[in-house]
Amino acid sequence: MHKVLGDKRAILVLLGPALLVYTLVMLVPIIWSLFYTVQDGNPITGFTFAGFDNFAKFFQDPAAWDAVLFTLRYALVLTVLQVGVGYLLSLMYVFWLRRGSGLIRTIVFFPVVLPTVAVALLFQRLFEAAPTTGPVNTLIQFLGGGNVDWFGTPMASFWIIILMDLWRSMGFYAVLLYAGLVDIPDELIESARIDGASGWKLIRTIVLPLSLPVLLSSLIFSINGTLKVFDTIVALTNGGPGNASTPLTLYMFRTSFAYGDYGYGSTIALMLTILCLLFTVFIFRSTRNDLTKG
Amino acid sequence: MSATTAIVTGTTPPRRQTPVRRRTTRDFFARLPMRAIIAVLLIVEIYPMVWMFFGSFKTQSEFLNEPFWSLPQSWGLENYVEVFTTGEFGKYIVNSVIVVFPSLAIILLLGVAAGFTLEVMVWKGRGPVLLLFLAAIMVPTQMILLPLFTIYFQLHLTGTLWPLVLTYVATGLPLTVFMMATFFRAVPREVFEAATIDGANVFGLFWRIGLPLVRNALFTVGLVQFFFLWNDLLIALTFTNSSDLRTIQVGLLNFTGEYGAVQYGPTFAAIAVNVFGTLLIYLFLNQQVMKGLTAGSVKG
């Protein structure tokens, strides 16, 4: 029996192609990219060895630090908001809408499947200030406010980016967390109710601790996704105004393809990878500590 | 992996007991805040789509002179014609189709075979190989773009659609292999062991028993990968150096740039065309899409 399931030739035929493509197009380039970080140039001009110049440059480059700060600010704010709003929605699905939540869940989820570029162009028009006044500014004027140039100031454009990604992702996190809440046994909730816990107290003492594992994985997915933000920003603000909304991904893209600096581009990409790893480890660690305390 | 906790069933209704209660006026007012929240939620989610749809039929002067809530004065298709003639969207859609569907087929075939080998077959080293596939899931795509650009350039593949297909297959594999392995893990081992006693060889086992067992899972994974590839911007933007190679996303990104001032009607029509495909799929397959995308959330 194990002879059949351990057939070496079959393993090679079935696994070989996937492993080959994966190795050549993912693993080899990842390693190759590490070699680029100690070089200068691009495939057309040729490369020269640069030692750790690229790393030194990264730490002294104000534009790089702006990009790091923007990436962190965006990732943290959006993670808190999308997991937070997603959790509130999932609580609403489970405790208020109950069986009737199917349609609402499906509708709130749908923006996830829309192409980012299309959503971004739509949001540009929704928040337009001139020459036509978009729906949002019309509403603000109706309520007595002034015409806001949403894409003209760093602060406003930051919040537009956040708002758009929240619109796209909250339904997704709501469904993800909803699945965790549904798994909580009814008996637990009922017995807590009999003991007198209700409303906010019930959520805080029973529901929240029990949904901690799925909240944790949501946080990890969210931070990993948001640190890599690219589509939204390229299509919505293209890094502007100025470079105010340029994350590491876009800075890397420009450095590499607009300025042809592959060495420095790879260094930025490596820094982004390290950032993703650090955050994942950090979230794992911090929750493990909490568990031992509890 | 924490990912397994997220393999979810987004469709099962909650089994909470609703106490039977008579509807009274007081009840109605007690429910009012919740109803208001839901109403706002629905408007926020749906109105942009309605606005886009109406906008795609309006003329430039309607945009500049009428308020945003006005309905289009005629239902002519001029804006859509503009999108497919000046905007060349036909070409972009064809490019997307000839890149995405072959990539999808290869990803699924290679991924399900690899998942089968890593989960059902018995050999030393399958644990490390599965980990190797997982290792790249969280690595940003930016890490592989530059070396790939060099490789494709040296192989004279630049200027064709091959770089897109190859990169899509490779980036799609880790998640597919991981998800297929998870699905095969749920199949009782006895099923395969009984078949080997009946004298089936491995390829027969894979093709006639393994594959049909994970057919539904394969469909779900296919849907997830379809959305990732169809909506991809980063890889498409990197490897499409001429306008003839543009996919639908890159085409839309460059659409507004081809005119001096914003042409509102055509822009809205272009967005509508772009959104149409995924929206249609979601209309019919929303439960599978929700299940699949949340299960594939490791990708971030």
In short:
The complex is a heterodimer of chains A (294) and B (300). With 294 residues, chain A is mostly helical.
Largest interface: A-B, 108 and 115 residues
**What is the fold named in CATH at topology level of chain A?**
MetI-like fold
| Strand element count of chain A | 2
Number of E strands of chain B:
0
Mean pLDDT of chain A: 87
How far from one another are the termini of chain B? 14 Å
Look at the structure and give the CATH class of chain B: Mainly Alpha
What characteristic shape of chain B results from the CA principal axes? globular
Structurally, the number of domains of chain A stands at 1
CATH architecture assignment of chain A: Orthogonal Bundle
User: Which structural class best describes the helix and strand composition of chain A?
Assistant: mainly alpha
CATH domain class name of chain A: Mainly Alpha
**What is the averaged pLDDT score of chain B?**
84
The fraction of residues in strands of chain A falls at under 5%
Strand-and-helix sequence of chain B, N→C? HHHHHHHHHHHHH
Shape of chain A: globular
Low-pLDDT segments, ≥5 res of chain B: 1-16
Give the strand line-up of the largest sheet of chain A: 1-2
Count of helices of chain A? 14
The profile of the biggest β sheet of chain B is: none
What report would you give on this structure?
- The complex is a heterodimer of chains A (294) and B (300).
- Chain A has helices at residues 2-5, 8-36, 53-60, 62-97, 101-109, 116-126, 135-142, 154-182, 186-194, 199-210, 212-227, 231-236, 248-258, 262-293; strands at 39-42, 46-49.
- Chain A is mainly alpha-helical and 294 residues long.
- Chain A has one domain: MetI-like fold (Orthogonal Bundle), CATH 1.10.3720.10.
- In chain A, 44% of the residues are buried.
- The mean pLDDT of chain A is 87.
- Chain B has 300 residues and is an all-alpha fold.
- Chain B is globular and about 75 Å long.
- Classes of the chains: A mainly alpha (294), B mainly alpha (300).
- Chains A and B meet through helix 1, helix 2, helix 4, helix 5 and helix 6 of A and helix 1, helix 4, helix 5, helix 6 and helix 7 of B.
